[in-house]
Write a structure and sequence with these properties.
Layout (H helix, E strand, L loop, with lengths): L27 H14 L6 H11 L21 H8 L7 H22 L1 H22 L7 E2 L2 H15 L13 H4 L7 H4 L3 H16 L5 E2 L9 H18 L7 H15 L1
Antiparallel strand pairs: 1-2
Amino acid sequence: MDSPPQPPSDQPVVVEEAPREPILTLPLPLTAYVVLLAVIHLRVLLPPELENWTIDVFGFIPKRYDSSLVNLQFEGGAGAKVWTFVTYSLLHANLTHLAFNVLWLLPFGSALARRFGAVRFFVFLAVTAAAGALAHLVTHEHAVVPMIGASASVSGAMAAAIRFAFVRGSFLSFSRSDADTAAKVPALPLLQALRDRRIVGFLGVWFALNIIFGVGAIGVESDSAGVAWEAHIGGFFAGLLLFALFDPVPRVRNDDAADASSQDISNGI
């Protein structure tokens, strides 16, 4: 048998290295957001009086908006009535609270950050946080305990991501593409998405977990801490309904929507 031809001895042999997988695969906007949450959480190292002041000024307190109050003053004044609709989502009660929200955000937020880009991603998180605060205000109008936590934004990111997560080639489909491609597949129209049994099943599980177990944004005081699941639902619906306003990817046509979803199932069997 003839041996394979050998390269001339006077020419260097080039050995191609296998492509290396990057250690950090999170998109930059999500990484920046997680780092921001971690840096802000260092407030727990402050003296107790200053930490409590921070929560009072930047946490969301429904009682702050009670027009019947005349003599009761809250830290932060009138400005806190505006910025706390968002700033509460950057604070967390403890490291477990922070870690739980970050872990839930990583898979869905990663896809959303790749799809939206930095500006849309950060504005979207702020809008869903505000929607969660509004839902909490409506259902807890006389609450004095500050609400903190990114759970409304996390819920909004999850809701937005499922608009395209199950489409063929996306990150929850059987025939997933690479991360960037998977994050930019055309989304299903909302009504079409709500007829997908996988999405309906996801919604059912999500609502059950929030109502039964209630995970995420909590009150600060240990003796009255509770789960602000209404804020989760507010953020979730905002993410689901407002997704189209932020989405830069052209929508899948109605006549192609069923094909994009059903082919994924057949290819995965």
